[in-house]
Design brief:
This protein has 18 helices and no strands. It is mainly α and about 475 residues long. The chain folds into 3 domains: about 180 residues, Growth Hormone, Chain: A; about 50 residues; about 210 residues, Growth Hormone, Chain: A, CATH 1.20.1250. Helix 5 packs across helix 15. The termini are close together. Pfam families: MFS_1. InterPro entries: MFS, MFS_dom, MFS_trans_sf. One of its GO terms (molecular function) is transmembrane transporter activity. One of its GO terms (cellular component) is plasma membrane.
Length: about 475
């Protein structure tokens, strides 16, 4: 019997009592910083390009940030192993702060992109380390709620980030939006240094870096992202072809390498670990049409930019609320939560494919199916998330716990990047720019949500395998 079943009915209060409260504040703060920065940056980017130029590279502000975040998350397990939680968070805060300052001082787009890369590298550490440190500072019966707390930080950032960025954008002070993060970074760094454990004494030698896999992983994302920027079909096909080749090479190198990016068994989707990582990847991919939701709501449903932005946040809010609810479920209910999650996502995306393309008057009655479905897609991830992540910890072999924890974020961000690039490709090919306008947006909405509904559909058998009682921990 896993240790998590040895303690009955742990409560949220235990997570905020004594030293657990300090750990919760530190880990939650790290994720909040990363998430808040994402939503602030998205909000102020129109003001940034209006000031320093670089509209042609608008999308690359997100691309370089995500690529760097993937690298940071992939390296987080090695950093934690080498310097411990205290030192790892110190490095993460230093990188994140340095990148933020570069962005605030940027005189042109190349400098801003450099800052976003450094910022993303530190942000990847901040996010991934939270999962790695959870298993070090909390008893295992608190893991599900600690993971729910991480999801809650994304929900809070979703609500506050656009507001903070919007205020500075309205004031014509986008640089101040980046500067406003610096005091929080300093407070977090001090808190992490004072409360988190240092490097544990161990005879285990630090593992080598999986450099070949990291290069191929980065190249895979860049290939698809670059292909999606072209309006001609052949550029998209070249991008897809290169992505498939590089992804195949990545899997082949990972399977044969003695220095691993993922834990053993992660590439076997029918196995205990592989099924869990497949659930993570497919559920996250299914959420990526959200990048076009604000635009579609404005063009097709007559919403203002502010309202459209907050309606798009319903996905993240659904994720947060469902994750907090699911974290309260006991171990007997966890398999059911995982199994039903992709079904909810499939329903949500199917309803969006039906109702989002229909031009509406903007009435709330007409928007109700769209709003409900956006929340349902987010809830489909949140319902499974605490238990999928906890099961990854439980099923990984003892000597690969750190790698398994870091791989959660690596897989999540990799799926996010590939899904976002694919969404861009689908939208461009289905007419969002040519012919554009209402007709183009309507056709793009149909294809976006219709095709991306395949992700949760494919996830249903993976979720059943992941939740199967026979796949017991370790």
């Amino acid at each position: 019997m896993p240790k998590s079943e040895a303690v009955t009915a742990p409560t949220w209060a235990e997570l905020f009592r004594g030293r657990n409260a300090i750990f919760s504040l530190a880990l939650g703060g790290s994720v909040a910083l990363h998430a808040l920065n994402i939503y602030i940056a998205i909000t102020i980017m129109p003001s940034v390009v209006a000031d320093i130029g670089g509209l042609d590279y608008y999308a690359w502000s997100t691309t370089v940030f995500v690529v760097a975040s993937i690298l940071g998350s992939a390296l987080s397990a090695r950093l934690l192993q080498r310097v411990g939680a205290r030192g790892a968070y110190g490095v993460a805060a230093l990188l994140f702060g340095t990148g933020t300052i570069l962005c605030a001082l940027a005189p042109n787009m190349p400098v801003l992109l450099a800052g976003r890369f450094v910022q993303g590298f530190g942000g990847g550490f901040l996010y991934a380390l939270a999962y790695g440190v959870i298993r070090l500072v909390f008893a295992d019966h608190h893991w599900a709620r600690a993971i729910g707390l991480i999801s809650a930080m994304w929900g809070i950032a979703t609500l506050t980030g656009p507001a903070i960025g919007g205020i500075f954008a309205e004031l014509g002070a986008w640089r101040a939006a980046f500067w406003s993060l610096i005091p929080f970074i300093l407070v977090f760094a001090i808190l992490a240094h004072a409360t988190l454990p240092g490097k544990a004494d161990s005879d285990e030698k630090p593992s080598r870096l999986p450099l070949a896999q990291l290069v191929l992983l980065t190249a895979t994302v860049i290939a698809l992202s670059a292909g999606s920027l072209g309006e001609a079909l052949y550029w998209n096909l070249i991008g897809i072809g290169m992505t498939l080749v590089l992804a195949g090479l990545l899997m082949a190198v990972e399977a044969r390498s003695g220095t691993r990016l993922l834990p053993r068994g992660a590439l076997k989707v029918t196995g205990p670990l592989g099924a869990l990582y497949a659930v993570i990847a497919l559920l996250v991919i299914g959420m990526q049409p959200e990048i076009y939701v604000p635009y579609l709501l404005q063009v097709l449903h007559g919403q203002s930019p502010l309202i459209a932005g907050y309606l798009a946040a319903l996905m993240a809010i659904g994720w947060t609320l469902a994750s907090l609810f699911s974290a309260n479920l006991n171990s007997r209910s966890a398999p059911g939560a995982i199994t039903i999650s992709p079904v909810l996502g499939l329903i949500g995306l199917t309803v969006l494919a039906v109702f989002m393309p229909v031009v509406g008057s903007g009435s709330w009655i007409g928007l109700a199916p769209v709003c409900g479905s956006l929340g349902l897609v987010g809830a489909s991830i949140g319902l499974a998330w605490p238990h999928v992540v906890t099961m990854v910890f439980q099923r990984a072999s003892p000597d690969e716990q750190a790698i398994a924890a870091g791989a959660i974020t690596t897989v999540q961000l990799f799926a996010t990047a590939l899904g976002a690039a694919t969404a861009g490709m689908v939208a461009n090919l289905s007419g969002i720019t040519q012919p554009g306008g209402v007709a183009g947006a309507s056709n793009a909405a149909l294809w976006l949500f219709g095709l991306f509904a395949l992700a949760p559909a494919l996830c249903i058998p993976a979720a059943r395998r992941a939740a199967r009682p026979g796949m017991t921990p370790r």
